[in-house]
Design brief:
mainly alpha; 2 helices
Length: about 60
């Protein structure tokens, strides 16, 4: 997937950006935001895949 980099201006919470920088060991705010966005996309794709498997009956509940 090829990404198109666009220069944008957003009003973001500085404390949240700093927390994300620490969590992902990012050197810059931009890197932190990129990593957080990538993680969010990956998490959503995993959730969607698991939901599809559940709908298809490929899992069963083991905690009853």
């Amino acid at each position: 997937m090829r990404s198109a980099v666009k220069k944008k201006t957003y009003n973001l919470d500085g404390d949240k950006i700093e927390k994300v920088r620490r969590l992902f060991h990012a050197k810059t705010d931009t890197e932190a935001i990129h990593k957080a966005l990538e993680k969010t996309i990956e998490d959503r794709e995993i959730e969607d895949a698991l939901d599809a498997l559940l709908r298809a009956g490929r899992f069963r509940s083991v905690y009853r």
